[in-house]
Amino acid sequence: MTATANPSAPLAVWTDFGGVLTPPVSVTFNEFADRVGVPLWSLKESMRIVGEKYGTDSMGAIDIPLIDEATWSNELEDVLGGTFGIVADLENFGDRWFAGRPANAVWVEALDAFRARGAFVGMLSNLPPSWVRHRRFMIDDSHFDDIICSFEVDCRKPDPEIFRLAAARAGLAPHQCVLVDDLEKNVVGAMEAGWQAVHFHDAEQAARQVSHLLDATSPAPALV
User: Fold this and answer.
1) Measured distance CA(79)–CA(139) in Å, rounded
2) Residue 153, exposed/middle/buried by CB under 10 A (0-12, 13-18, 19+)?
3) Beta pairing, strands 146-149 & 12-15
């Protein structure tokens, strides 16, 4: 999805997906671990080990992607069994990860309100290609002026290149862009790229902070 640049927009609000437009990742991790019968600590450690094998973090191997989801799931099973002695079936990982996971309706409403005020609203997500259908099921593309997923552009947050690309796609300068993200490293990366950023804790808090930024960038009404 490619936007038509709108240089008259006062601000480009780029929202993360997982953990922002969805329930907190920590909640989903716990529910998923229970669903597949694997201790949470061992699942996270296996993800870290597999990511390290590919020179990245826990999700980097499938976010770009370096491997597909099925290969990644099989490698997680191998680590769980070989390192921790835990037999696990992680087939159809994404289907089970997103099962029963609702969109954050309060945040969707806030994004729509930002657009109504004239802001450019985009999604900027480290998202594996096989998970796009789940994302579209949860929230329709029509809520966004543009969507950038890591696998489509061969880079991911917090790499500076993805922020450069997103600002260019919005047609705005870096300081006119704001990232809303639940991960501190992504917030820091955005700020280092010259962006503004909001560390997402909940929809109400983030909406207040973005609204203040919009207030600061919107022109004052003309005096009559």
Assistant:
1) 34
2) middle
3) unpaired
CA 57 to chain centre: 15
The pLDDT profile of the chain, 224 residues, written as one tens digit per residue, is 545 455 567 899 999 999 999 999 999 999 999 999 999 999 999 999 999 999 999 999 999 999 999 999 999 999 999 999 999 999 999 999 999 999 999 999 999 999 999 999 999 999 999 999 999 999 999 999 999 999 999 999 999 999 999 999 999 999 999 999 999 999 999 999 999 999 999 999 999 999 999 999 865 444 44
Helix axes 203-217, 105-116, angle to 10 degrees: 10
Question: pTM to 2 decimals?
Answer: 0.92
Can you tell me which residue has the tokens 């004052």? 220
How far is 5 from 28, CA to CA, in rounded Å?
A: 35
**Which amino acid is present at 206?**
A
Q: Supply 104's token pair.
A: 């954050």
